[in-house]
Design a protein that fits this description.
The protein is of the alpha+beta class and 473 residues long. It contains 13 helices and 22 strands. Bound molecules: flavin-adenine dinucleotide.
């Protein structure tokens, strides 16, 4: 019998698991995909918003503001990147300038640092801002992260401290006994936490009629090549009824992302890109100029798990005790996740285990080996210790065999080509895996002792090689 089972290994499920791993508890995480961060957490703007934007008196507002303050420390603890690059919310006419006034008032009320700049002052800092920009609200506490990196690191450390993760495990049935739950007729748990993102209402409906319904909203993006000189801050337009609008976002690794749109979609797993990209191409010209679309290397889409109640829904169920909802976690869910995890653990879960103590010994994860920022001497020492670090597999991002083996061999390690890409970047560069993908496939096959035909690109059914050419003949 598990003490606690978490459904969903996105950022909320993983950070809750990470927090719980500090206590003497038997914790299990169930994830239907073959890796963590495969839902909304794997496809978004990757921003730690300042908290200037959510409606007052909502959970979104509360957790956004607190989560923003927690991120630098959390990323230090997990040894992952957090870059506090700041953002500009820009206005292009009188109506938008008036909207900026509301945001300024909200910053004052929420104790969020800000500065107001004229259009020319903003352009002096960001020369590629559109000439139409008349005013900018500078938000220095805005940051950028790699969301999957934070999630993978949190889960890795949770697992080093005893949390169990079952991948490829879809929750299809839940029965409530007197004081425990039975999942899929086989897993017993005292407490159940629903972090199932776009499927959180499906999970609740397995126990009772869900008080909320998910309406997924797709957001698409362009990814441009390394363009460190084009942009240094995140650029938001003034928000509209449809949300934060189309942004220009530098990434931790020096790429630029443009997007997202926001369009409702019936299919909760449909992450194909399409007409949203035309909209982004048009809208981005409102805030930016000289957009280098000739440097386009990738497009992707993510699905916001919006619920019809409008706000996050985070509480123990009104009817079924020990069933906890962490539902409707759309934007700013990434930012809010550390604060949500803290409250779920301290205010809802731990009071149920009043005698439980924090573990006396806690194991810290080692950071991923990142050769980008190493000096020549450091690299040389590493290669001397293991020649695999001298064999470059990804030519665009300069990722070595040693780095790839490291991310496969860890707890919560990579088992697919995308899993390797998300952890240490082969395939993220200009050629998008054209050169290195076959090599990564071969390394996965060797490291996991699997036939090459069993290695997947990402989700189930995405096997790259179906049979050897000889067999086919
Ligand atoms: C386009 C877009 C842009 C965004 N930009 C930002 C941003 O810049 N900043 C920000 O703060 N927030 C942003 N967000 C919001 C943020 O990405 C989400 O709030 C956050 O990732 C939600 O995390 P989660 O763990 O709750 O859900 P998810 O990441 O969706 O995880 C849920 C998990 O549950 C699993 N699951 C579902 N059903 C089952 C089942 N039956 N059995 C087992 N497992 C199951 C899924 O496979 C999935 O892995 C954005 C979202 C989108 C889509």
């Amino acid at each position: 019998m598990y003490d606690i089972t978490i459904i969903g290994a996105g950022i909320t499920g993983s950070l809750i698991a990470h927090g719980l791993s500090k206590y003497d508890l038997k914790v299990l995480v169930l994830e239907k995909e073959n890796d963590v961060a495969e839902g909304a957490t794997g496809a978004n703007s990757a921003m730690v918003h300042s908290g200037h934007d959510p409606k007052p008196d909502t959970l979104k507002c509360r957790y956004n503001v607190i989560g923003n303050r927690m991120y630098p420390e959390l990323c230090k603890e997990l040894q992952v990147d957090f870059l506090g690059i700041g953002a500009f919310v820009v206005a292009t006419d009188d109506i938008e300038e008036e909207k900026l006034e509301t945001l300024i008032r909200q910053c004052e009320e929420r104790d969020i640092p800000f500065e107001v700049l004229s259009g020319d002052e903003a352009r002096a800092i960001e020369p590629n801002l559109s000439d139409g920009v008349t005013k900018a609200l500078s938000l220095p506490s805005t940051g950028i992260i790699m969301p999957f990196e934070v999630t993978i690191a949190a889960m890795e450390e949770a697992m080093l401290n005893g949390v169990e993760l079952k991948l490829d495990y879809e929750v299809k049935k839940i029965d409530k006994q007197k004081d425990y739950f039975v999942i899929n007729d086989e897993i017993e748990t005292k407490v159940l936490i629903n972090c199932a993102g776009a499927h959180c209402d499906d999970i609740t409906n397995m126990l009772r009629t869900s008080p909320y319904k998910v309406i997924t909203r797709k957001g698409e993006y362009f990814v441009l090549d390394h363009l460190e000189d084009y942009l240094h801050h995140v650029i938001y337009p003034t928000p509209s009824l449809k949300g934060k609008g189309v942004l220009a976002i530098p990434t931790v690794h020096g790429n630029i992302m443009l997007g997202p749109n926001s369009d409702e979609t019936e299919d909760r797993d449909d992450d194909a890109t399409g007409s949203g990209l035309d909209y982004i191409r048009k809208e981005i010209n409102k805030t930016m100029k000289n957009v280098p679309f000739n440097k386009l290397i990738h497009t992707f889409a993510g699905l916001r798990p919006h619920i019809d109640l409008g706000d996050f829904y985070i509480k123990e169920d009104d009817v079924i005790s020990n069933f906890i909802h962490v539902a409707g976690i759309e934007s700013p869910g990434l930012t809010a996740a550390p604060a949500i995890a803290k409250d779920v653990i301290n205010d809802i879960v731990m009071p149920k285990f009043a005698d439980c103590k924090a573990k006396a010994e806690y194991v810290r994860r080692k950071p991923f080996i990142d050769m980008r920022h190493m000096s020549f001497e450091e690299k040389q020492k590493l290669v001397e210790s293991d020649p695999d670090f001298g064999k470059i597999i990804c030519r665009c991002e300069k990722i070595s065999l040693g780095q790839i083996k490291d991310v496969i061999r860890r707890k919560c390690g990579a088992t697919t080509i995308k899993g390797v890409k998300m952890r240490c970047r082969p395939g993220m560069g200009r050629c998008q895996g054209g050169f290195c993908e076959p090599e990564v496939l071969k390394i996965l096959s060797e490291e996991l002792h699997k036939d090459v035909t069993d290695i997947k690109l990402d989700r189930d059914g995405s096997n790259v090689l179906l049979a050897s050419a000889k067999e086919e003949l």
